């Protein structure tokens, strides 16, 4: 399997780890250890390429699927200012998808193949975007906390080893930092608003907390890819370390607004700086990322619709001299 977007564990077991030339591998690993960037024309281990394709592709899918929950609120934003901001943000997320698909194409997988794998359910995308945005407060939680979580991950990984991915992440992080400001502004406006606005925000936080904890991936003990990815500097911190960094920065910000985090067991060890929390329900995480979340079908149906209805545009662009009748519906 090319992209490594495994549908189940049996399929993963069938995929052998390809053996590389040991001499080339040693030179490659020395370059990584020295902090050099790897570029598309450089020799790279087959598994490095495969892992990068898997991760960048999933990231790209997460951006274009991630635009959907907030996108449904463009027509219902509570003011003109909020409407303009959310419209621009959603547009940026699609742009991030474009940059990431381009970065992934440098590794040899075509965009068409990636989009087909998304629509067929073969590739994964972030768990969080399989939950519904029921109220405007959900948009505020996504804009503040999910963007914050994404920034923790992306700032770290932008210092990684693969040039095209790192350069895309650097650009994405500039925009994400601005998204975070708009999310924070919307979040604070509700937190200091009327009692019903506060209640709406607390309800959204209650529903999103678990998916946000899941966002950083399974605990280090359960993570399949972390060790290899960190050795090759594709991933610059483990899932638990990223989650910990997020909790240290954002739990105090949520609490100072008088909101309650819906986990009575969440606490920080003041000596080690580590957070512990209640049962994260990893069963739910695995169900959702394997296609059985509240909105998986709905999200993929939108992508399928866009691919079907955009076919004639792609065909016209690729064959400018062909006479073609534009479908009416
Ligand atoms: N969701 O061995 P690990 C955003 C899968 S961008 C779904 O620990 P790894 C912007 C994983 O693929 C959000 N699946 O995996 C935005 C693997 O399955 P596989 C996306 C997940 O790669 C904001 C299995 O579990 N960001 O939000 C998740 O070492 C607002 C075992 O896991 C990125 O993609 C998950 N959360 O670590 C847009 C960043 N976690 O493939 C709109 C790049 C794990 O073997 C609005 N990616 N899995 O079948 C990464 O940093 C890493 O891939 C991790 C996972 C940290 C996500």
H/E series? HHHHHHHHHHEEHHH
CATH class descriptor: Mainly Alpha
Helical residue percent band? 55-70%
Strand neighbour order, sheet with most strands: 1-2
Find the CATH superfamily: Ferritin, core subunit, four-helix bundle
Mean pLDDT: 93
What portion of residues belong to β-strands?
Answer: under 5%
Unreliable runs: 1-9
CATH topology: Ferritin
List the helices and strands and how they pair.
Elements: H1 9-14, H2 22-33, H3 46-71, H4 80-105, H5 111-120, H6 136-157, H7 163-191, H8 195-215, H9 226-231, H10 239-255, E1 267-268, E2 275-276, H11 282-289, H12 296-309, H13 311-318
Antiparallel strand pairs: 1-2
Helix pairs in contact: 3-4, 4-7, 5-12, 6-7, 6-8, 6-10
The site of Phenylacetyl coenzyme A has 34 residues, from α3, α6, α8 and α9.
Notable traits:
329 residues; mainly alpha; Ferritin; two-stranded antiparallel sheet; 13 helices; 2 strands; disordered N terminus; binds Phenylacetyl coenzyme A
Structural write-up:
This protein is mainly alpha-helical. It has a single domain, classed as Ferritin, core subunit, four-helix bundle (Ferritin, Up-down Bundle). 62% of the residues lie in helices and 1% in strands. It is built from 13 helices and two strands. Strands 1-2 form a two-stranded antiparallel sheet. A hairpin with a 6-residue loop joins β1 and β2. The longest helix has 29 residues. The N terminus is likely disordered. It binds Phenylacetyl coenzyme A.
């Amino acid at each position: 399997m090319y992209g490594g977007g495994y549908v189940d564990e049996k399929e993963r077991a069938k995929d052998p780890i390809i053996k590389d030339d040991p001499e080339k591998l040693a030179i490659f690993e020395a370059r990584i250890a020295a902090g050099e960037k790897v570029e598309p024309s450089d020799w790279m281990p087959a598994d490095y390429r495969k892992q990068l394709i898997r991760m960048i592709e999933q990231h790209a899918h997460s951006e274009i699927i991630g635009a959907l929950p907030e996108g449904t609120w463009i027509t219902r934003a509570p003011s003109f200012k909020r409407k303009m901001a959310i419209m621009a943000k959603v547009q940026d997320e699609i742009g991030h998808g474009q940059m990431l698909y381009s970065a992934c194409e440098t590794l040899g997988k075509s965009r068409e193949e990636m989009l087909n794998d998304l629509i067929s359910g073969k590739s994964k995308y972030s768990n969080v975007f399989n939950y519904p945005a029921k109220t405007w407060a959900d948009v505020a939680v996504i804009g503040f906390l999910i963007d914050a979580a994404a920034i923790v991950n992306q700032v770290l990984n932008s210092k990684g080893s693969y040039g095209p991915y790192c350069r895309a992440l650097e650009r994405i992080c500039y925009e994400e930092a601005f998204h975070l400001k708009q999310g924070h502004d919307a979040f604070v406006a509700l937190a200091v608003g009327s009692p019903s606005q506060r209640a709406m925000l607390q309800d959204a936080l209650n529903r999103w907390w678990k998916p946000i904890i899941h966002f950083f991936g399974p605990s280090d003990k359960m993570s399949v890819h972390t060790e290899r990815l960190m050795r090759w500097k594709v991933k610059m911190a483990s899932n638990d370390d990223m989650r910990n960094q997020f909790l240290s920065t954002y739990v105090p910000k949520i609490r100072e607004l008088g909101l309650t985090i819906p986990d009575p067991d969440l606490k920080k060890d003041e000596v080690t700086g580590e957070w512990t929390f209640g049962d994260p329900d990893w069963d739910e995480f695995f169900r959702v990322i394997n296609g059985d979340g509240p909105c998986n079908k709905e999200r993929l149906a939108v992508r399928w619709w866009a691919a079907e209805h955009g076919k004639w545009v792609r065909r016209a662009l690729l064959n400018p001299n062909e006479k073609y009748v534009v479908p009416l519906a």
